[in-house]
Amino acid sequence: MRIVLVGPPGAGKGTQAAYLAKNLSIPHISTGDLFRANISQNTELGVRAKAFMDAGDLVPDEITIGMAKDRMEQADAANGFLLDGFPRNVSQAEALDEMLQAENMKLDAVLDLEVEEDEVVKRIAGRRICRNDSGHVFHVTYAAPKAEGVCDTCGGELYQRSDDSEGTVRTRLEVYHTQTEPIIDYYKAQGLLVTISALGKVDEVTQRAMDALKK
Fold first, then answer.
1. 22 part of the active site
2. For 162-198, what is each residue's pLDDT tens digit?
3. Choosing from 2, 71, 127, 128, which is the catalytic residue?
4. Is 50 one of the catalytic residues?
């Protein structure tokens, strides 16, 4: 199967992508992994991307598209893939269509993880990270430490990352609504969109997704 996974920040895309890819026996291709791999391997695209990132600029679509194309052409993606974080906008979605059409391929589904904005804020703004190397993650509501502000495992101080603050989360949501959400209508018009609720336990959401994809 060839699947695109979409949803707002905090919807659990990374977690669900890993589980779904394993269940479907297809590679999980995430934008973050693509950038890290290309930059660490010093590829031409990686060098170009790093120059923009070091300057504090957005990486142009053509570079992201190029990285995705190279990855989808690898042998392990011959029978399908799950894209996480790509396409991020309608231009990238159109480019993906063109890439697939050139190879006489098409997407099987676009899985939209749906979650209310207030729940997204609650999920992300409630995260607390251990300052020690353990990097354990807690949540003030869903996985609270036994003692407030203290890591259960090593006793380290728990803190909130600056990009997990409510203000930053709402800014990220605005970017999502403006740039990425339009691809939902784009794929809905193609009859590819499958929307499921991202609320509940991880395995419950995974099963919900698997059931929806089978239909």
1. no
2. 889 999 999 999 999 999 999 999 999 999 999 999 9
3. 127
4. no
DSSP per residue, 125-180 = HTEEEESSTT--EEETTTB--SBTTB-TTT-PBEE--GGGSHHHHHHHHHHIIIII
Q: Which of 13, 71, 122, 128 is catalytic?
A: 13
Tens of pLDDT, residue by residue over 76-103, are: 999 999 999 999 999 999 999 999 999 9
123 is a catalytic site residue: no
- Choice among 170, 172, 188, 208 that is catalytic: 172
The answer to whether 208 is a known catalytic residue is no
Residue 208: exposed, middle, or buried by beta-carbon count in 10 A (0-12, 13-18, 19+)?
Answer: middle
Backbone conformation region of residue 192, classed left if phi is above 0, alpha if psi is from -120 to 50, else beta: alpha
Q: Is 131 a catalytic residue?
A: no
Does residue 58 have a pLDDT over 90? no
**Which residue is it, tokens 């203000």?**
167
Phi, psi of 138 (to 5 degrees): -125, 175
Among 48, 50, 69, 88, the one annotated catalytic: 88
- Global pTM reads 0.88
